[in-house]
Structure formats: structure tokens, C-alpha cells
Amino acid sequence: MSKQQLSRNNKITHLIAEYLRIRARSTALCERLEVEDYTVQPIADVSPPKWHLGHTTWFFEEVILVKHMVDYSRYHQGYRTLFNSYYKSAGAHWLQSQRGELSRPTVSEIMSYRNYVDKQLVNFLSTAEVDSAILSLLEIGLHHEQQHQELLLMDIKYILGCNPLSPTYFESSLDNTHIETAPWRSFDEGMYEIGATDSSFAYDNEKPKHKSYNYAFAMSEQLVTNGEYLDFIQDGGYDRAELWLSLGWDWSNDNKIGHPLYWQKIDNEWYEFTLHGLMPLALNLPVTHISYFEADAFANWKGKRLPTEQELEVYLSASSDLERISNIKTQSAKSADIFHPTSSDMPFGQVWCWSKSHYSGYPGYKPYQGMLNEYNGKFMCNQFVLRGGCVATPSDHYRHSYRNFFAPHQRWMFSGIRLAKDI
Amino acid sequence: MSKQQLSRNNKITHLIAEYLRIRARSTALCERLEVEDYTVQPIADVSPPKWHLGHTTWFFEEVILVKHMVDYSRYHQGYRTLFNSYYKSAGAHWLQSQRGELSRPTVSEIMSYRNYVDKQLVNFLSTAEVDSAILSLLEIGLHHEQQHQELLLMDIKYILGCNPLSPTYFESSLDNTHIETAPWRSFDEGMYEIGATDSSFAYDNEKPKHKSYNYAFAMSEQLVTNGEYLDFIQDGGYDRAELWLSLGWDWSNDNKIGHPLYWQKIDNEWYEFTLHGLMPLALNLPVTHISYFEADAFANWKGKRLPTEQELEVYLSASSDLERISNIKTQSAKSADIFHPTSSDMPFGQVWCWSKSHYSGYPGYKPYQGMLNEYNGKFMCNQFVLRGGCVATPSDHYRHSYRNFFAPHQRWMFSGIRLAKDI
Amino acid sequence: MSKQQLSRNNKITHLIAEYLRIRARSTALCERLEVEDYTVQPIADVSPPKWHLGHTTWFFEEVILVKHMVDYSRYHQGYRTLFNSYYKSAGAHWLQSQRGELSRPTVSEIMSYRNYVDKQLVNFLSTAEVDSAILSLLEIGLHHEQQHQELLLMDIKYILGCNPLSPTYFESSLDNTHIETAPWRSFDEGMYEIGATDSSFAYDNEKPKHKSYNYAFAMSEQLVTNGEYLDFIQDGGYDRAELWLSLGWDWSNDNKIGHPLYWQKIDNEWYEFTLHGLMPLALNLPVTHISYFEADAFANWKGKRLPTEQELEVYLSASSDLERISNIKTQSAKSADIFHPTSSDMPFGQVWCWSKSHYSGYPGYKPYQGMLNEYNGKFMCNQFVLRGGCVATPSDHYRHSYRNFFAPHQRWMFSGIRLAKDI
Amino acid sequence: MSKQQLSRNNKITHLIAEYLRIRARSTALCERLEVEDYTVQPIADVSPPKWHLGHTTWFFEEVILVKHMVDYSRYHQGYRTLFNSYYKSAGAHWLQSQRGELSRPTVSEIMSYRNYVDKQLVNFLSTAEVDSAILSLLEIGLHHEQQHQELLLMDIKYILGCNPLSPTYFESSLDNTHIETAPWRSFDEGMYEIGATDSSFAYDNEKPKHKSYNYAFAMSEQLVTNGEYLDFIQDGGYDRAELWLSLGWDWSNDNKIGHPLYWQKIDNEWYEFTLHGLMPLALNLPVTHISYFEADAFANWKGKRLPTEQELEVYLSASSDLERISNIKTQSAKSADIFHPTSSDMPFGQVWCWSKSHYSGYPGYKPYQGMLNEYNGKFMCNQFVLRGGCVATPSDHYRHSYRNFFAPHQRWMFSGIRLAKDI
């Protein structure tokens, strides 16, 4: 066996292990659910957890097995349509807003589907001639599955949180780590490099690495806290049109929005629903589950502004000094099983920070070819970029160049605010 | 023990037995479901089966136990709202259209709720001084539960039928019984008595018995069949505005309606989804799952008309001659486990027949008092009456005076057509 | 010239005069409008006045001239579609809800259209062989035009009334005639004749005359007044679910209804917008512009009920004793130019009274043939009958057998309440 | 009189002349309308022309007279609300979507309102101490009025164009000027200056002038023509999901979009509705009235891309060489009365070119203070920037730094496509 073959075999062995580890985490995240929790779709944005388990499986089947494995036969013809999210080039797809109408396939049938595809894929990787293009698709598939792990947590939280019985995902107390930091960190005017290189995995939308000229700015070292946000509310923030974008004002009035998604006022006290139960509002934890509209209104009220995505990337990259990282690692080891932000001082990994940047292709952007052409580019309209990862983001899935994106009214993700200002 | 006491005790013993029998049938109807099937709500009209199981329990709790049992304590405070369907006088109620958003309480928790209330109610009936007003509420509660048994079958059918995988409730072949009958049965002009007396159970909306002057008419002895309805389709019935009510024309165009709810065309052949599987369309079985709009358009196409509800009641009452009844009994013994019409010749018990009568109070109508005031009267607007029962109606729940009612666009119930004509 | 010919010629001469008189009234009703008032459509139900002027003209063109006049050429090909209201058999029609989108044809062009058709029609009647079928269509056309005269007043009122500047149609003071009457008039149980004969003009939906068995009832001799309705409001009528139909409760909550359509509260005083200006609410005038939902809730609050349409027809027919008629005539001479009810004591001609009867075909109902088949029958769904005429109804258009009909939420017509009760 | 006073007086005299000239043009643009054309609002985006005439007047009244003129009394209290477009800080405003519901005030009343305000304003300018802050507001007011002149033409076109009678604004033949140009113009990578300085009038959103680093690109010297766009349609452009943004695909399917807004196919020939009548589609004129979604799909089909707004500004500024300007001037002299693009070769002034840039504040952006704070900033969400002006833009209102913006589905403005590519 040549060295090259050996190295290749090692790489494949490693990828299989990664595949099994990541796939197992998806089902593990659901272990605390009742069958009924897997099934419902309270709003169009929130998919039934069982759908996520099916769709991520479909992704590997459709992108790798069907196209590249000789004599592969699909687990079920009907799943081709049912678990296609939106890929027009992969044929018809079931409407997103109607995922919760389907009681079948059952959770148990979907688990069988997962097992079938896992077995086939491992078999395929172990035995077939797998070229680098396929390995690249596999890598994307794994990152895709991790994206859905975050979505699973978001959707589970919504499903439990909209229930008047306020069921708990699992009980746990929330520690609150506070590290004293300087309030603002300054950055000079000048040319910066933005985006990812090809040296390690990144999505097409993070490339190419390119120059961006930024004016001098300062970034807050602290995430906006529940306490600060409560001040905004108590100062009439939701009633002062001058603070709001025009669309945001209409949105908050039409939907009678007066506080972050999971806040509840009970007997005149504020509580926050978390995956770990309904808890008294912790004033020094980061505010989360807010829309772009709310983030922007808050920034206006504060006399500051939201950062651009370039500024956030510059800030995040600069934040990765060793001492901080070691703090964060300690933190994240601990938070492995906590799905709620516990610190307003950390530069990343707590809440996705809204940027004021519209989600658009970088200069020279080249979308994936084939079916995955639809992965990112077609959503570059009416969405804003968020940066920095959150407690629900798998830590080995996160990168500083990562561009998350949502419509300005959405807030069921773990979104938050980091303020910037001109200097 | 006096004779009166003895008779009273016997009556209570009998009612307890009835209660347990009827309650058990509700859960028995669900035994063939997967947990996921209990949970979803594909359209607002169709409630999750688990909601029906909770709501019928709530009804006994709210109407009897909470009001009449000393020291009764509710199973769960939250259920008061969650399982209230629409009774404003019973406090807040969860929105009908959002029943499918709730994964909790689980099926298993609802079964515990049923057990708790059953135990309490049996205990209450066995030991407390139960007056006739309470027994009357109990009787209504049992009929209410039986109404929901029909709704359960309708909703289960919709949940399975809207699923592209076409799951089967349970497999069974459908016999087709055909009895030769005269095509039309005539009735003279004159005064008829319509409605129910107090001699046995009937809802408030079936009373009082009253005089109604009817002109001479003839009623078809045959239900309209799938074959006849197919002729209507093939003759362009859905494309000819002159056959349709104005609202019906808009409805069929806006919703792209071109056939009964559960018909499917596969490879140019017609199939019908039933609770017993997807089957080739049986041309001589009664057409079912059609709206008032379709029934009315069909009647116009045929040059006939829909009957009034008075005409249907006159016809149904006249149909109960002994020989026919014995046929029907044989039939219904057999059909105990078949939830699809098997004969177009039977006068009742196959499909609910649309009448052209708007649902309204009879002359001298007195609604129930108290919370049950909301049982019938408040729905007397924009609905049409259907008569004759269907295969999903519990046979001991059915009466010729029974007035079912639905909005003219609805068709997920087992509705069909019996034509009438002036003579 | 034979006698028959003479009589025929006289009849035609008379019809031409009637035609010109009635046509002139339509434009006369609009003389007080600004061009802008002719053009807008604030809600789908309310058509621009210029559309009414065009449509009534189209009716004569389409039903008579195009079909029966040799060599007739349409005034404008485009009007065939633009002024067709809903007759599917007459080809395409412009959507009702989009009539207000069209600035053209202008008012002045529509006036030319009217002149053209009038000239052609008079010429046709004067010179052609006009058979009785055509004369019958002409008669329908004239009644159709008179129906639209009432609609014009309703629509003009809405257009002015929804304007925050509250423009006045024309100024006039409203007298208030009060005749003392017995409060209730009783009718015996028994068989009554309902409907119109062929002896004089009536629409198809008023026929055939037929027997109807009514139970004993009493009808209020007084229309419900603004004062009584205000009591209902002040007693929390709009907030008490138990008084309302289920659909009505949803309607009033969804639309935040808390008073009749044209009432306004200014500086804590009630006013009513009328065609003669905004006036302080006159407590002893009949309440008007209320929906079926409101009328039904009011009746429930009062412990009475709405009458059936048969009861109203019996009452109206019985009310035509000579003395009363002479009163009414005096009244109506005076009210020729007043388009607001001025008396709660008159049996008819003030406000259309809601009946609890669904609009449906009478026993033996035969709709018109041809295009006019769509005149009445296709609307027999989800509407309630109103009886008795109103101040906007041309007096020579009114009959006791007249069946007006509206959906239960509509209230821009001059609708009101006359209560009934069982005796 | 000091020199300074003299210069100031001259400046005021000049501004008064400008004011009268610009105000007169607004009414002149409407002279060809019928009264009915001033009044309707076929879709929410399109305001009745009379509303524009009122609103622009309200702007001067509200921003200058009410705040700065001693003893000024409003023309009509009700107009304060009726003609407020969306300024929350100026109190309540009539809903945009309901402007077409109002027949009053009439056109003639609005003309009186204009005259009143004009007289007062001229008087105020001539006699009061008018400081530079007020002059600055006046300047904004004049540009605001010019913006509405373009809107007037857009809205008039829509009102006439949606009418099935296709009325003509005024007749005129469209010349087609074709100048041979090189197909692409290249620009080097490097730092560019973007935005307006304070040396002449510009809106707040065009400032501050700032550095932007652009990669090398080439801009097409030709606007995309109707002929090229027709090729896109005939190549199935509207049916190929892979060319479309996700939101765009849904938009085009939901609204059954298959061609630019004003194209019509009659007897298999393409026509285009213009303000000068319905004309056979001119293949070498610029395509116009297309949405961002369509522009983006076209660019994808062509294998090119839409430019950024920075690239467009760089291109426009570079295009202003003398020879070209003289061509353009000749052209624009001629086109003074033509409101349809006549050349695909001109760098600006033909159709607004969609950029791929989201409408956002420039680095260091400072919005106006006071009521005009709402002029631009609050719309910086879900809109895209267009550059280059169009035939409906007053030529003295246009600047290369001008940022027009619309939502990606809108297309009733004179929008078009100029392609870019990376080099």
C-alpha cells in the first residue's frame, strides 16, 4: 500500500468516524423529546424535529448515494419529495409550511431510514472508489447536519415554549460567568481581509477572501443584557416610532410585539422560557431571541449602531487571543449541555449578533455547482447577516467567517446584540 | 329499599355501564393509530385525535364534576382552557385552529386524564345524591362523546388521507350490497309532524315537535352513486357556471376543486381513499365527501333538487318498515367495523344527505340553559342541515330527527346526495 | 287600427314614458355628487356610482338591444365586460372588487353611453315588433334600475360617510313623526298564503304563491329605536358572548364593532352620519345600518326574537288598512327627498327588517330562463331575507312580497329591527 | 443695503422663482388628466394623483409655515392627517392603502389648497427673516416635490395602464436613437470615492463622501433591450428555477408573472403600454418596468451580474465626458415631453438601473434631524438601490450620487438593467 493510499485510507476512516459521531448527535439531541414533540409545526418557520432527522438523511442519500453509488436503491420513493426542503433541481418538494400536517412517516420509521442510509454510506465509503469531489460533498453534508442540529434546538425550544404548559427540555441551573472587560475595543481605519480561504472547510458564501476598507470603529466588548433591554422597554422603546425602521414599526404593531420572544410577565414579574425551564429573568445575561427590527431600535435608543458584518469579523478574529480562548474553552466544556447563554462577556459562542449588513455575495462570489447551487445564493435577498455563533452551534461547526442570515422579523434563533460606534 | 330507590339504583347502574362502554369505544377507535397520528391538525376543521380524547373528558369534568361534586379537584388547571372547545361561559379557550401546535399534553397524559375523570365520575354517580338534572347532563355528555366518535373517524380519515403515503386505518374489503328498489317514493301534500318529543333523548335543536305543511314530493330511493357523479364530472359539471351557486362557483375555482375530497386520479384511473386503504373507485357505491355546493350543482345538472330537511325526515320515518329494518340490521351488524358506505339502497346510515334547509331553530325552539346554551343555537347561521346518519355514526346515537349541520363548503364528513323532485 | 293594437300602442307609449322617468331618476340621484364621488370604491361591496350608471345601461343593451334589435351595434365593445356585474352566461366580467380601480370611462362618457342606449331603446320600442317576452324583459330592466337606485343611495352614503371630512349629500332637517300604536299585534296559528301571484310584477323569487303554516305570534308595531339600541350598548351588549351567534361574535371582535355603522362618538356625545349631514343621535328614530348579527344579539338581549320572513309578510299585508296607508302616503310625499328614516311607527318603508329566514327558493320555485337565470337563484346561500322596504326604496318598486337579502355581516343598506315573539 | 443683504435677497428671489416653477410643473403634469384619473388607487403602491398634489403642499405647510411663520393658520385642520404620508412625528396619518377610498377633498379643493399655501409661502419668504436652516428646508421641499413629479408619472402610467381601455396620456411617436458604443467599459481595482459632498444639494442618504475599495469590473455600455429580454422569455427564463432568487421564484409564481409589467400579448404579437399609447414592442429600446427579481434572473441567464451601487456611481461619474454630455443634452432637450426611454446607449437618464446593493446607510451616515429624520433612514431595510435616473426624473433633480430604492418585487417605476462583470 502506497503512502498516498495509506493517508487516503486514514482520511476515510477519519471521515467515517466523524460521520457517525455527528449523525449520532442529531438523534441524541432528540432523546429528551416525547414522540408528539417530534411531530408538530406551530409556525411555518419551525419544522417538526422528525422532519429534520429525515431531511438530513435525505441530503446524504440524494447528494451522494443516489448520484454516486452503483446500484443504490432508495429507502422509500416517497421520501424523495417529502424530505426535499427546497431544492428545485432535485424535483418536487413538500411545502415547508405543511410539514406539520404529516403524521407519517413516524419517528420510528425515520430512525429506520437513518440507519439504512448510514449503513449504506459507510459501506460506500469503505468499499468504493471515492474521489475528492465526493469527499467534499460528504464534508458539506456533515456541516449541513450540524446546521440542522442548531435548527433542531431552535425548533424544539419554540415547540416547547409556545406550549402554555411550558414543558422543560431538561432541567439545569444556569451559571452566570462574568469577566470584567473594557467596555469598547477600537479598530483603526484601514484595509482588512474578510472571508475564508480554501485551507479549511467553509461554505461558498464565505469566499473568496477579499479586501474591505473599513472606517475606524469601536465594538462593545459586552453583549447587550436583559437588564439593558428591560431599560429600553421601560423607557417606552416599543412605543416610540422614531426609534424604528418603518417595516419594523408595522411588524411590531401588527403582531403586538412588546418584549423578546420568550419573555413572559407573570404576576408582574418577568420570566424567560429557556430549554431548561421557565426562569426569572436574569438581568445580566445576554438578551436573546430578538428580531433585527428590535436590535436596530435598541441601538438607536442607545445612540449607537449595529456593526457591519465586516466589523464583526474583524472583531471576532481579533478576539481570539490565547488567554481569552482558554477562558472560552473552559466555558464551552461546561456549556456542552447548556443551551442558553450564560455570559455577556464572551466574544463569540453566546448569541448570534445581528449585523446591519444585508446578506449578499462577496466580490467574486462563486456559488457551488449542481444541486448545491441552491444552498446559499438564492437566499441573498431581504436577509441580514448574523455573526459569532451561539450556544446551540456545534463548536466544531463554528468559524469567525461564518455568515448566518435571517429575515429581519425572525427571532426564534438565539439572536442578540453587540453594539458598535464610529470613532 | 323502596321500589323507587331500586329503580333509581338500577338506572344509575345502567348509566354507569353505558358511560364505561361509550368511553371505552372512543379510545378503542384510536387503537390503530400511531402516536404521531393523534397529534397533527392538517386543516383548522380537523382536530388532533388526542384533543378529542381530552375534550370529551373535559366536558364531563366541567359540566358535572366541577359543578356538582363536592371537593372535586381538577386533574390539571391548564386543561380547563386547553380542552374547552368554544364555551365562552366556561372561560378562555385555546383557539381551534391552533390545536395542532401543541405537542403536550401527550397521548399518554391524556389517557391518565381520562382514567382520572372516569374514576371520579363513577365514584360520584355511585355515592352522591344525583338528581335528574345531573342525569340529564350525563346523558348529553354521552351523546356528546358519541358525536366526537364520528368526528374522530372523520378527522382520522383526513389525517391519513392528506398524507401522500396514503396510510391505511385498517385493511378490509368493502362488500357492495345492492337491493333492487323502486326509483322514487312519493309523498302527498299535507301537514306533517316534524321533530322529536320528550319521550326519549334528543338534542334541543330537534324540538319541539311541530306541524309543517309540505307540498307533494318524491324522494329518490337511491343515493347518488360514484358512477353518476363521475358522469357529472365528465359532462363538464365543474366547468359550467350555470349549475352552481355563486359562492360555490368562487369556492370551486379558488380551491381548484374538480372531484370529491378523497378521489385521486392515478395513471388516468380513478381511486378513492378510504379508511380501509386506497381503492379503485367503486361506481355503484354512494358518492361521499362532497360539499353542499357540489351536491347542489349535481342536483341542478340532473334537473332535480335537494330535499328540504322536513322532506328527508318524512322520508326517513316512512322508511322504517320492518322488512327494511331487518335488512339494515343485518347490514349494520356486518358494518360495525367498516367505516365506508357499502350500499346506495339504504334509507339511512350510509352517508349524511345534504338538505337545502338552512340550519335554524324550529318554531318554539328553546335552547338548553347554562353552559350548554352554546351547544347548538349559536351555530344557526350559514350552515345547512344534513339528515340520515352515516357509517361513522354510532348506531345507538342516531335518530331520524337528528339534525347534523355543516357549512356549505365543508366536506370532510361522510356527506352525500339523495335527490328529491316536485310532483 | 284594431282595439288590440291601440291598447298595445298605449301600453308601449306608457312603458316608454316609464322608462324615461325611471332612467332620469338614476342620474338625478347623482346630480349632487362631485365627479370624484362617482369614482371611488372604498370597500368591495360599495360600487362607484358611475359603475351603477353604466351597469344599468348595459343591462338594457345586453338583455334587449343586442339580442332583439336588428343591426344594433354596441356603443363600445369594451363595456360588454366592464359593466357586466356577474352574469357568467354573458361572457367575462370585470371583478366586482376592482371597479374602483378604473378611472375610465369617465362620468361624462358614461352619460353619453346612457343617452345612446336610451335613444336606441326608445327607437326600438317605437318601431319594432315588440312581443310580450321583450316587454317582460323591459319591465324587469326597469325594476333592476330601481334596485340600483337604492344601491346608489347606499353606496353614496358609504362613500361620503367613510370620509373623515363627513361631506353632506344635501342638507335637510329630519322631522320625527310619532304615531301612538299598540305595542304588539297578534296573529293566530294557521295556514297563510305567502308570495306573489302573476297579476302584477314580481321577481321570480317571490313566486309561486304558496301555503305556509305559521304558529301564533305577535309582531312589534314599533321598529327598534336608536334609544333602545343605545340601552343595549350601555348594558354591555357587544361584550356579552352569550347574546351572539358564534360567527357574529368572531365578526364583531375581528372588526372591532361596537355600534351601528354610521354612529360616531365625538367628545363623548353620539352622532349619526346621514345623507343630510352628521347629526346628534335621535333616540326615537329607528336604528339602522346594523348587521344580522347585531339584530339577532339585540333580540336575544331583549328576550324576543327576529321574525320569520313569512311572519313579516303576514304582518305587512295586514298593516295595509286604509287609515294607515293614508298616513303613510302623506309621509312618503314628504319624504320624497329625505333619505333617512323618520318614524319608528310605520309598518313599512322605513328600514329593511331582518328576518331570521335564510334566503331560499319557495316550494315550486322556477327561476327565470336565459341570462336572467342568474338574477336570484344563484345567491340562495348564506344570506338572510329582509322585508318591508326603506326610505331609499322607490315607492313604486316596493311590494309586501319583496324579498331583499344580504349576508349576515353586511350593514351598509338601510337595515333595522322589528321584533317578534311567540304567543 | 449691504452686499451680503443683496446677495441674500437675490438668493431668495431666485428661490421664489424656483419654487413657483417647480410647483407649476406638478400641476402641469396633471393637465392631461380627467378628474377621475386624479382619484383612483388601483394598488396600494400607486397613490391618486390628487393626493400627490395635496401631500407636496402639506410638506411645505407642515415643515415651514406651521413651524416658522408667525400667525400662520392651516388651510384645513383635516388635511394635517389626510396628507401626511407617514411622518409619525407629525401626528396621525391616513393609511397609504386607503388613499383611493376618499373622493373628497376634490381636485378643485386641492388646487385651492395649493394656491393658498403658495401665496403664504411666497409672502413668508418675501417678508420674514428667513434663516439658512429654513432655506435648507425649502430646498428639500423642492426636491421632495420633484421626487413626487416622478411618482406622479409612474402612478398616472399605472392608472392608465391597468385600465382595459388603455387610455393614452398624450400621443407622441417615440424616436429611437442609437449610438454605437463599445460593449463594455472597464474599471481598475482600487479605492474610489463614493457619495456627495456638501457643495451642492444632496439628500442625507448620499453622504458622507467616503472611500470604497472596488475590485476590477466592467460595465456594459448598453442597457438591456426589450429584444434581449424577449430572448430570455423565449428561452424559458420565467420557468427555470435555477435562475431565480428563492423569494423571486415564489413571487413570480404566486403572481403569475411572465413578462415586464406593461407588456401585453395581443393576437400573438407583443405590445408595450406607454404614456404615449399602446405600441408594438420596440426590440432595441431598453426594457423597463421590471422587478429586482427579474433583473437578477436575467443577469444569471446572461452569465453576468448586476453591478453594486458603488460600481454604478463610478461608471456614471466616468460617463460624463463632454461629447457624451452634449449628446445627452440634445437628447434630453428633445425628450422633455417624452416619458418613455428612447435609447439603450445613454449612460443615464433612461431607466433606473437595479444594483445588487441593499439600501443602507453609508459609513458615518447622519440622518436629518426633526421630522425629516423619517425621510430616508427608516426605509433602510429590504430595499435595493437603483441608480442613473430615468425619463420621468426632472433633469435638474438628478445627480450621479442619487440613490433611488425600491423593494425587490416592485416594478411600477421606470426600472431597467445595466449588466456588470468581474474582470
Notes on the protein architecture:
Chains A, B, C, D: This is Ergothioneine biosynthesis protein EgtB. Chains A, B, C, D: Pathway: Amino-acid biosynthesis; ergothioneine biosynthesis. Chains A, B, C, D: Residues 21-151 form the DinB-like domain. Chains A, B, C, D: Residues 189-320 form the Sulfatase-modifying factor enzyme-like domain. Chains A, B, C, D: InterPro entries: CTDL_fold, DinB-like, EgtB, Sulfatase_Mod_Factor_Kinase, SUMF_dom, SUMF_sf. Four copies of one chain form a homotetramer. The first copy, chain A, has 423 residues and is α+β, with helices and mostly antiparallel strands. Chain A has two domains: 3-161; 184-422, paralog of FGE (formylglycine-generating enzyme), CATH 3.90.1580.10. The first copy, chain A, is 37% helix and 12% strand. Chain A contains ten helices and twelve strands. Chain A has helices spanning 3-30, 49-68, 79-82, 107-127, 132-161, 226-234, 246-254, 292-302, 309-318, 322-334, and strands at residues 184-187, 190-194, 210-214, 217-220, 263-266, 269-274, 277-280, 352-358, 384-387, 404-406, 415-416, 420-422. In chain A, the strands form four sheets. A four-stranded mixed beta sheet of chain A has the order 10-9-8-11. A three-stranded antiparallel beta sheet of chain A has the order 1-4-12, with helices on one face. In chain A, strands 5-6-7 form a three-stranded antiparallel beta sheet, with no helix packed on it. In chain A, strand 5 (263-266) and strand 6 form a beta hairpin. The first copy, chain A, is globular, with a radius of gyration of 22 Å. The model of chain A has no long low-confidence stretch (mean pLDDT 93). The interface between A and D is large, with 36 and 36 residues.
